[in-house]
Design goal:
The protein folds into 3 domains: about 15-160, no CATH class; about 165-280, 3-Layer(aba) Sandwich (Rossmann fold); about 295-640, Rossmann fold. Helix 2 (about 25-50) packs across helix 6, helix 13 (about 315-325) crosses helix 20 (about 505-520) and helix 17 (about 400-420) packs parallel to helix 18 (about 440-455). The protein has a 9-stranded mixed β-sheet with strand order 10-9-8-11-12-13-18-22-21, with helices on both faces. It has a 7-stranded mixed β-sheet with strand order 3-4-2-1-5-6-7, with helices on both faces. Helix 18 links the parallel strand 12 (about 425-435) and strand 13 (about 465-470). It is built from 23 helices and 22 strands. By secondary structure, the chain is of the alpha/beta class.
Length: about 650
Amino acid sequence: MENPIKRYTFNLVKKYRHSTVSQWVIFLFDVLLFLIAFTVTVLFHYVANRGDDITINALMIKFVLALILTLLAFLLSGSYRGIIRHAGMSDIWRVLLACIGVAVFYIIVNFLNNQFEPQTVPAQWLLAYREIFMVYSLLAVLMILERLTLQRIYNDYFRRRRPEVNVVIYGAGAAGIIAYNALQQDVHTEYRVVAYIDDDMSKVNQALNGVPVMRVRNVLEPKFVKQKNVSQLIIAIPTIRTMHKQAITNRALDLGLTVKATPHVSMWLNGSFSANQIEDIKIEDLLEREPIKMDNVNIVREVVDKVVLVTGAAGSIGSEICRQLMRYQPAKVVMLDQAESPMYDLQFEMRNTYNSQLDRMAFVIANVKDRARMEEVFEEYHPQLVYHAAAYKHVPFMEENPYEAVYINVFGTRNLADLSIQYGVQKFVMISTDKAVNPTNVMGATKRMAEIYIQSRSTEQTRFVTTRFGNVLGSNGSVIPLFKKQLAAGGPLTVTHKDIIRFFMTIPEACNLVLEAGAMGEGGDIFVFDMGKPVKIYDMARKMIQLSGRSGIEIKEIGLRPGEKLYEELLATKENTIPTYHPKIMHAQVRRYPVDEVNREYSELWDILETMDDMKIVAKMKSIVPEFRSNNSVYCQLDAPNTSAQPASNQ
């Protein structure tokens, strides 16, 4: 039979374990400790002096005076007001202040009351008041022990058990110490920092907060991780170089660790830092490159006091171009897109961010394939610069809808190019793609045709420039958002082919290079960006699973989609590049098409477009772009024999 007393005690503890003890209970407990300290001191004095000089009257006077002064000291210092379970150095300091203060005040009162003869002060001062020092020294020790003991009892028996995580902090500087303190204050997880890592050899073999500072090679290795049961690495160097951060992260991930990082101090909430602000390392962090340093002098000269039209303004690239343009004091940025909801979001963001420059912004809902509507926009705003980012970009969709792909990507571009010449636009910059190189799909072919058209139209009055780059991290509809959704759903992560690779760069980096390339273009140029090393999509999926800290997530190979190829290129086979003054921007030397030939071919394509016959439309596209060879598509039958079945790897 269950013991009722034990059961009652259990229920009582369960009910009140998270309640806060009244401060007056703590006050009375401290008074009790004073009585204990005073009694122990009197007994010690009695034993030491055999009771020869102790009288009841003198003892009572000392007791009453000490008690009154002690009560006042407790009330004035507020030593009883702290919550015991969260007691810290400030609480200990208040206890010491109260005890030292009352001892000093007691001595002053007795001195002024002439408790002993003045001539005896030098010889007997310390002796006469040794009991006072003993009382309050003992009281201070007892009060501190009381708080530490109750705190330990609460932590061991009453506090909700939190999951324990053994952590290594990379960075033994100020940020590392702040991260340590933040972890100790976390109420949800019991963090135990087992080591600091630092590259500064002067810090190695020292200790911070009792935790050793060690070298990378001695910590990020299997034996140490297993021995200390490390499960998490926190990078606490906000200014760490990108490549170094990636190397450390990859090393930790290979050891099965979860990797997090402290944000830059500018991102701290209200100037303070807490454990929940420690961020997960994202796949974007592992794909970024060192920031490009640009002086932006050319961009300022190009944009300042100009009216700029941005098409596709609500998209990933277009919206970032708009943000960056606003920094260069344009006369007006006309933001145009056909997507209503994304445009509403962009308008809300821009008006809040640049609320002092509302007169410099205009928001237009329009479709670039609507010639009449676009002419109305040019007539109203008379743009001097055009950044053309509007396009259909999803390969499988465009493979199924070549009519729309051609209408928007080719003839929408033609509308803008012709109107730019008609209204005297100074420069027209088009955003192209690496899929325009040796295209294997409808989307890539339409972008190559748009390149051909604007290159043939460049004049002294209106200069046309093309910028060509690969994928941007986190753009709408790209692989990273897809993987994140699949992870959230528990997997699997789907890749079309285990060997497929792509080039990546960040959206701000790509847009900054677009503005710089546009500024340097003289007309008819195609600029290619340094995209760095290509990334295998399968490896990206594997890294994202590791970063999520989840196990058992499958990576499923589903086969190449229609029009998709394994390896993207930035230059066609017969193209070459020459350097520019910017190391990340190269000038592509490509074939130029005579304007008469372009006009004839595109007029024929327009006539065929009206038939809405997909096969005829794609066949004409292949005639205009001879290097267009379909891959894994129904349009492979339109290619010459022995070419349609070959994968377009073009290594």
